[in-house]
Amino acid sequence: METFVELLKTHNLKVTQQRLEILRYVESHLTHPTADEIFQSLTKKYPSLSKTTIYNTLETLTNAGIIQRLTICPTEHRYDFNHDMHHHFICKQCGKIFDIHFTCPNVETIEKDILKDGHRIEEVHGYFRGKCKDCLNKEGVKNG
Ligand SMILES: [Zn+2]
Ligand SMILES: [Zn+2]
User: Fold this and answer.
1) Threshold 0.90, pTM exceeds
2) How far is CA 140 from the centre of its chain?
3) What is the CATH number for 114?
4) What is the per-residue pLDDT across 47-69, written as a single tens digit (0 to 9) for each?
5) What's the gap in Å between 94 CA and the centre of ligand 1?
6) Is residue 71 located within the same domain as residue 114?
7) Rg (CA), the chain
8) For 18-36, how does the pLDDT look when each residue is reduced to its tens digit (9 = 90+)?
9) 3-state secondary structure at position 87
10) CATH label of the domain that carries residue 13
11) Per-residue pLDDT for 5 more than 90?
12) 74 falls in which pLDDT band (50, 70, 90)?
């Protein structure tokens, strides 16, 4: 909890119970939860917590760059703690999202080009879609 307090302070954000709880949730659930999942879980502990508060807090934390909002899933936003730059692979079948850790070989080239114009890249999002191992296995059983 201490580190989260520090984290909020570094970003000039007021330290509130809600912010700390949401941060802790996102940081400990690396399954890329939706706002709804976060709400369902936290409302058990904090019944007075409203959905609006969850949405607003997620918005604030996203804007500060502490967490990231993934738009990989067309129907709902997912949230991820911003540990380091990584990309995402979504299974079209079961909707599970996996982290992919690799440095895109194009980034350096793109960055050089963009820096030339005086811009700065702060985020890189790579979205990959396909079928996960589990779903492929299940299909394999069905087909053969
Ligand atoms: Zn799957
Ligand atoms: Zn992730």
Assistant:
1) no
2) 31
3) 3.30.1490.190
4) 999 999 999 999 999 999 999 99
5) 4
6) no
7) 18
8) 999 999 999 999 889 999 9
9) strand
10) 1.10.10.10
11) yes
12) confident
Q: Read off the tokens for 69.
A: 């909002």
Cα of 136 from ligand 1 centre, angstroms: 7
For 77-103, what is each residue's pLDDT tens digit?
A: 999 998 778 899 999 999 999 999 877
Answer left, alpha or beta for residue 26, where phi above 0 means left and psi between -120 and 50 means alpha. Answer: alpha
117-121: which pairs have CB atoms within 8 A and are 24 or more residues apart?
Answer: none
Query: Last residue of a domain, which of 65, 82, 99?
Result: 82
Bridge partner list, 127: 88
Pairing mode, if any, of strands 87-91 and 127-130?
parallel
**How many Å lie between the centroid of ligand 1 and the Cα of residue 137?**
9
The rounded Å distance from CA 136 to ligand 2 centre is 22
Give me the domain span that covers residue 129: 84-144
